[in-house]
Amino acid sequence: MKNLFRVLILSIVGFLFGFFSDKIFEINQSQPIHIHRVGHIPVPDSLANNGVLISYFYRGAYHTFSSAAPKIYYGSKYQFRKRILKKFNSSNFTESGYLIFRFFINPKSEVFLYKIIEMDLNLQPKDLNDQLVNELKNLSFNPINWNPYLDDNHNYYIHLTYRIENGKVTEISP
User: In this structure, what DSSP letter does residue 161 have?
Assistant: First the structure.
């Protein structure tokens, strides 16, 4: 009988807490409600009518972030890094910061949606040199760097982070 009474009291307290929780705790309605999955890259309006792109997008991403890393690089990550460092002309740049590419790769090894994030070494937003960003983007998105997915129904989703110090790429992750 005591246990039944405890369960009843706890149920009533739980109900009342749930019912009045928005009154007890201040809810900040000015913050946007996030309705997208983590890692969402929106389709720009200019590409929204591109049927091929949309069909790639809705296939879904099978591997994401670093789980794709061992399989996604053509050859290996070491070879990818070697190709990037060999072709990147660091003598043209003196900036430091992080350059992050988040992107999808379709079954043909082509990048079809991407987002670029630029930051300083203190992880604050910063506009890096456009030539530097474009050169690393073109080198990174080259289909020769990526293995195609084994079937036509999936994409890879990955991010690359470049640490740049005085114009030189010092680290690539993942």
Answer: E
